[in-house]
Amino acid sequence: MSNTDLNVRELNRRITDKREDLIKLTQDLIRIPTLNPPGEFYDDCCRFLGERLGARGFDIQYYRAQGSPGDSDRYPRMNVVAQKAGGSGPCVHFNSHIDVVAVGNHWSRDPFAAELAGDLIYGRGACDMKGGLAASIIAVETYLEMYPNHPGRIEISGTADEESGGYGGVAYLADLGIMAAPRIDHVIIPEPLNKDRVCLGHRGVWWAEIETHGRIAHGSMPFDGDSAIRHMGAVMQAFEQQLYPQLAQKRTRMPVVPDGAKASTLNINSVHGGEGEAFDGLPTALVADSCRLILDRRFLIEEQLSTVKAEVTDLLDDLKRNREGFDYRIRDLFEVIPTMTNEQAAVVTEVSRAIEQVLAKPATMVVSPGTYDQKHIDRIGKLNNCIAYGPGILTLAHQPDEYVSVTDMLHSAEVMAIALHNLLHTATPAAKT
Length: 433
Prior knowledge:
Elements: H1 8-17, H2 19-30, H3 42-54, E1 59-64, E2 78-85, E3 87-97, E4 116-117, E5 120-122, H4 126-146, E6 151-159, H5 170-175, E7 186-189, E8 197-202, E9 204-213, H6 228-248, E10 265-273, E11 290-299, H7 305-322, E12 328-336, E13 339-340, H8 346-359, E14 364-368, H9 374-379, E15 386-388, E16 403-405, H10 406-424
Parallel strand pairs: 3-6, 3-7, 7-15, 8-14
Antiparallel strand pairs: 1-2, 2-6, 4-5, 5-16, 8-13, 9-11, 9-12, 10-11
Helix pairs in contact: 1-10, 2-4, 4-10, 6-7, 8-10
């Protein structure tokens, strides 16, 4: 068998034969409850991955992102990078986050039992994104069985904290030059964007905290004080009357899914004011002297971050001029510029070709409504050849009774293995170690 000619039929047969291995691997990963926050069992999950891939000849390195948000001896922000070097050629890297969000309510199954029901595996993280991680591992392992003397370098990573910004994971590795150009040439992130889609990037995001100020007083005599909560009500009213209609008119050329995300959006994440919520007794009679609101603003590639921020601060400044006693403070929490990989990039074209081979239908180009770790690979790692592609239905992410289809994982593994072969044989200059 030529090292440059891929036997697609044999590859697909071998992956299909690994169905039970894929199911077990996915279940094993789901059963490690890597909840974020606070960052449970990251080290356990990384060691599990390292032991499996190390037994298959990969060089394994562990990286704790010390000093990153949330990192502690109790909850270390642990990452694993597995590397299999071949001959000269490019580096293809499969990156998956290992953390999952809180379980929430309304589950009909144990969220960490990884129950198999027909073709579906249920559990927190099944879709987002332990199913994708498992599929990428099966893809790479199968490919290496057929082509042990491959060119270039193949890498698989499991990284921390994507659900809370990725600073203890991909951002940390990108800062070290590990998840970055020129060391890596192509990155595939198996996020759940549906098996027939290539995700080119994501919208931008700005999180900020607005605090309105008031004056404390006895609750029976509120006229002696000044309620910060009422001032925040005026902020939300201005959002409703002015900002939300303005955002709804903005549309993008980015192929964002679902359709509602083609407009700019603003979500009020939380509002906190007055009495704290940690006490079970009766509240005291006080006028709130502080109220805080967290906003989650998603914006388009056509918008400038400075304009996005000004749309909010202009409303706040107008209230300060016209509303008696109104004063505020605003604090940036998190910001990401929109990113979108060129459709002509090799990683896009090869994954698209593989989708058509496996599924007998053209790939659809999409952009994610929310950000994921491509932002760090682009901004810090200076690598534009990055996409998200993986099994799973996007709208199931973070939902109760989250699941992933075994058939979809098998198909995605076939796509990833075919694309891997073709990318390793592209004319990309050899990656540097």
